[in-house]
Amino acid sequence: MGELLGTVDTPPRKRLRDLLSTGGPVVAPGAYDALSARLVEQAGFDIVYMTGFGTTASLIGRPDVGLLSGAEMIDNATRMVSAVDVPVIADADTGYGNALNVVRTVRAHEQAGVAGVHLEDQVMPKKCGHMSGKAVIPVDEMTGKIRAAVEARRDPDFVLIARTDAAAVHGLDDAVARARAYAEAGADVLFVEAPTSEEGIETVARELRGVAPLVFNWAEGGRTPPLSLDRIGELGFSLVIFPIGTLLAATAGMRSLLATLKAEGTPTSSLGELPSFGEFTDLIGLPEIGHLEQRFS
């Protein structure tokens, strides 16, 4: 698909907008650091999604309950953008404060090279969208933050995704109404978080399809039913994120290796299941470094 929509010479933000305009659904696997972002790109995906859940887990080993600052999240996004050529969408949480904080958050993500962000209407400190105990700010306050984000961006191709967590707090009707208000405030893409039934997903699609491109969060093990990609496409969603599968897979792999090491004293019996040293250095770019050394040293 990337070849049809342009080469790496096309700026990432323009490529993201082109991808979202295809009708989708475009798949964006989650990544939580530069290495996982490279693996997503090498697997052939057109978009990397920086997961806040995975970023929190990988940086501080804690759950996604609003413990990281905006600076820490943007720093992680910066490293991920530097590691790949495909567009990176970043979780920007609540924007880390009021509308004035959102202005700084958007500009900092632009400076980091991120192609787009999503901003959510939770009360700070926020929680993962599939956890209980969430609270949301008034809709007028959030529309003000969206308007601030629109005016703050310097690149008109920078994609602003408005996420509402209201379904779990006030019900799906309120979430849909909020999403419409956020689109009117200037959001490019709408993200209704955590509908808990296929009927609820269909309602979101029916009510908001045509208002703006829609995000489906295929949260692995979360509260939203795991629909097939074909069904998600039939409903009209433009972007599907798979936020934590890479994190869960890495955790399972490390636990397995460590169990072997603990039981047997060495990891020898597990090494056949892992990339070789040479394979790993290749995938993280050692041949490219060698080429640059030959050219410039």
Record keyword descriptors for this entry.
alpha/beta, disordered N terminus, 297 residues, eight-stranded parallel beta sheet
Q: Major sheet: size, sense and barrel closure?
A: 8 strands, parallel
**Percentage of β-strand residues:** 5-15%
Number of helical stretches of at least 4 residues: 14
Order of helices and strands: HHEHEHHEHEHEHHEHEHEHHH
Straight-line distance between termini: 37 Å
Neighbour order of strands in the largest sheet: 6-5-4-3-2-1-8-7
SSE class = alpha/beta
Low-confidence stretches: 1-7
* Overall helicity: 40-55%
Q: Would you tell me the overall average pLDDT?
A: 95
The assembly state of the depicted protein chains is: single chain
Gyration radius from CA atoms, angstroms: 20 Å
Q: Assign an overall shape.
A: globular
Number of strands: 8
Q: Layout of SSEs?
A:
Elements (H helix, E strand, L loop, with lengths): L1 H4 L6 H9 L5 E6 L2 H9 L5 E3 L1 H9 L9 H14 L4 E4 L7 H14 L3 E5 L18 H14 L6 E6 L2 H4 L1 H13 L4 E4 L5 H11 L6 E3 L11 H7 L3 E4 L2 H20 L12 H7 L2 H11 L1
Parallel strand pairs: 1-2, 1-8, 2-3, 3-4, 4-5, 5-6, 7-8
Helix pairs in contact: 3-5, 5-6, 6-7, 7-9, 9-10
Describe it:
- The protein is of the alpha/beta class.
- It contains 14 helices and eight strands.
- It has an eight-stranded parallel β-sheet, with helices on both faces.
- α3 (34-42) packs parallel to α5 (70-83), α5 runs parallel beside α6 and α9 (172-184) runs parallel beside α10 (198-208).
